[in-house]
Design a protein that fits this description.
By secondary structure, the protein is of the alpha+beta class. 56% of the residues lie in helices and 16% in strands. Strand 9 and strand 10 form a beta hairpin. This is histidine kinase.
Length: 425
């Protein structure tokens, strides 16, 4: 934008300079030619009384003297054919002037000035002089050079002023852009200092107001989620007491483990609800330990529903750029989808593989596959919330990876969660 404004001012400045300097340059040349012609005419007019009354010898000496003083060719044509001064032939202009008419005409040699003189006994005499081209344009080149330098100086000053003006416009716009990018990166405390024209100051104020409003809305949302999570603690406590009161130790242990997992999830929701920004949601964990723990938990339900579970987990530690709570939530979401969207008895497999710069978790089943639009947030074909894949995808992005959906080797669904590893220190 700054370059375009400068270019625009430069173009306008050049056009204005041309519009003024070109006519001025033509005027300078015309004035110089007219001044030279006026001087030549004045010199010729000094000879008129002499040519009208003096003898030829007196006229000759005076004409030679004037020619030597002015550096121009001066000739006097008498009616009897005598030519005094600089030898020259009778031109059509001289012939016309012999009829009594004084003229100034352009010729190949310059500008020809002829003056008719009445009163001589033999007839009308004619005084002729020629103003050469170099005298007609004397000083014009220097004047044009001065005008060109003046025009260049004006354009340069215009460019400097335009650059300063463009800078006063571009700097506030750049500040607005920088703050908007910071807000997009979850730096909600970023603010812009209003500057520049009134319109840009108004935009800056609107952006600051928007950032404050976003902070208020996020704070209200987090508090609402936190409040809802706190409300869940009471039924969780009651559920734990019920689990501990069961007589069968195996059932009590299994139900207590489920309550523990639910409580961890609720605790994670509370923590995430109180995070100031998504940028603070960093962390790391051992993917092998977290995935192993969650697969062990779900293997009990797989056994109860007659599902064959194939487990292939790479040995740890496998540090990934994701907190343990978020990774556990993603694993629970993927495995929960298997139980929610496939019939009992459907086999599935869980594989955790490690590479140089990433860790890959693959969950594949032999069920009916993914329905169309299942990746869309809130979409579900089994009466669930439809947020499982969305939770996994957000975890993948937070962990510097990606989530891929495809058909499994047995025709069912195959979900691959890739996470970036933590660089060794």
């Amino acid at each position: 934008m700054r370059g375009r404004l400068t270019l625009l001012v430069a173009a306008v400045g050049v056009l204005v300079v041309i519009a003024f300097l070109v006519p001025l340059a033509v005027l300078v040349r015309t004035v110089a030619a007219d001044r030279a012609t006026t001087r030549a005419t004045a010199d010729v007019q000094r000879l008129v009384p002499l040519v009208g009354t003096a003898d030829p010898e007196t006229i000759r000496s005076t004409v030679d003297q004037i020619g030597a003083d002015t550096g121009r060719d001066v000739s006097v044509f008498l009616a009897d054919g005598t030519v005094l001064g600089t030898p020259a032939s009778r031109t059509p202009t001289v012939v016309l002037a012999a009829r009594g008419e004084s003229l100034t005409v352009e010729s190949a040699a310059g500008r020809e000035v002829v003056v008719a003189v009445q009163g001589r006994p033999e007839g009308t005499g004619v005084i002729r002089t020629v103003v050469p081209r170099d005298e007609l344009t004397a000083g014009v080149t220097r004047a044009w050079l001065v005008l060109a330098l003046l025009g260049a100086l004006l354009v340069l000053v215009g460019l400097v002023v335009a650059d300063r003006l463009a800078g006063s416009l571009v700097r506030p716009i750049s500040a607005l852009s920088a703050v908007s990018h910071r807000l997009a990166n979850a730096e909600l405390d970023a603010r812009v200092e209003p500057a520049g024209p009134a319109e840009l100051r108004e935009v800056a104020g609107a952006l600051n107001h928007l950032a404050e409003r976003i902070q208020v809305l996020l704070r209200e949302e987090r508090e609402q989620v936190a409040d809802l999570s706190h409300r869940l603690r009471t039924p969780l406590t009651a559920l734990r007491l019920e689990a501990e009161s069961l007589r069968d130790p195996d059932d009590a242990a299994r139900l207590t483990t489920a309550v523990d997992g639910l409580e961890r999830a609720v605790t994670g929701v509370i923590r995430q609800a109180r995070w100031r920004s998504t940028a603070s949601a960093g962390g790391s964990c051992d993917a092998a330990a977290v995935v192993g723990e969650r697969v062990t938990f779900w293997s009990v339900l797989a056994e109860d529903t007659a599902r064959t579970l194939t487990i292939d987990l790479a040995p740890g530690p496998l540090p990934v750029r994701l907190s343990g709570d978020e990774l556990a939530a993603a694993v629970d979401a993927l495995l929960g989808n298997v139980f929610a969207h496939t019939p009992d008895g459907t086999p599935f497999q869980v594989r955790l593989a490690a590479r140089a710069d990433e860790v890959t978790l693959t969950v594949a089943d032999a069920g009916p596959g993914l329905p169309p639009g299942s990746r869309r947030r809130g979409a579900s074909g089994a009466g669930s919330t439809g947020l499982g894949l969305d939770i996994a995808e957000r975890a993948a992005r937070a962990g510097g990876g990606r989530l891929e959906l495809s058909a499994g080797p047995d025709g069912g669904a195959r979900v691959v969660l890739t996470l970036g590893v933590v660089a060794p220190r």
